[in-house]
Amino acid sequence: MPNSNDGNFNYLNRMSCNTEAQLQILTPTQPIRLRTRFIGIDPDNAVIFALGSDRHWLAAKEFITQGQGVIVRIINSDDPEANIIAFRSKIKTLLNHAGRWLIIDYPSQLQSVALRQHSRIPIMVSASLHALKPDGYESKPISSGNLHDISIKGGAYVGNLIPGCDADQALQLQVKIEQSLETIAMPITVKNIQLPGDDSNECQYGFSINSDDDVDAEEFVQKVVLSHLMQQPKS
């Protein structure tokens, strides 16, 4: 599991202006997700983002105040390694006279992963498998468990035994993203099955991701990895 280190902070400090970012405002009821752009950085002091004006930003206006907790995700898709940086922070201030900027405290801890650098990224995220039916997929899972690793090509799922499941069977993988209270899904094909050992009643299903669009597959994996990163304990 990647840990915070000087290299991660150096990467953040060299981040290019206009890099895509996502903010999650931690409200008392439901988190609010906002899209924005990275503007700049004052190392060890503050990180600056563009202050948006769309309906999502307007809906979040009352929560965008000094001291409000936020989760930040920066996805540098222009980098050959597709680095993802994630951290928790608090809003420092809003600036409107020099530009529409949202300034947050510089993080004390970072989580980072290079999506394309690893053939498989070790994770632990709750997931479920769903059977195919003529008009889509069953809403009730045929197996509940966890994703143990993931890549843009496939991964490993460990969960309840699926009676009659064979290699090359098409299923749907669903993952609940706890931080944003959403469920994402991706069609998969089972490639191999490891039956339970003496000390376990769960099977491991190796799978490939079935997507005609690499962008869709990459976005799915990014969300899964970010969910894993942000559920790690923070000091």
From TrEMBL:
<keyword id="KW-0973">c-di-GMP</keyword>
<dbReference type="Pfam" id="PF12945">
    <property type="entry name" value="PilZNR"/>
</dbReference>
<keyword id="KW-0547">Nucleotide-binding</keyword>
<protein>
    <recommendedName>
        <fullName>Type III secretion system flagellar brake protein YcgR PilZN domain-containing protein</fullName>
    </recommendedName>
</protein>
<keyword id="KW-0975">Bacterial flagellum</keyword>
<feature type="domain" description="Type III secretion system flagellar brake protein YcgR PilZN">
    <location>
        <begin position="18"/>
        <end position="107"/>
    </location>
</feature>
<dbReference type="InterPro" id="IPR009875">
    <property type="entry name" value="PilZ_domain"/>
</dbReference>
<dbReference type="InterPro" id="IPR012349">
    <property type="entry name" value="Split_barrel_FMN-bd"/>
</dbReference>
<dbReference type="Pfam" id="PF07238">
    <property type="entry name" value="PilZ"/>
</dbReference>
<dbReference type="InterPro" id="IPR009926">
    <property type="entry name" value="T3SS_YcgR_PilZN"/>
</dbReference>
<feature type="domain" description="PilZ">
    <location>
        <begin position="115"/>
        <end position="221"/>
    </location>
</feature>
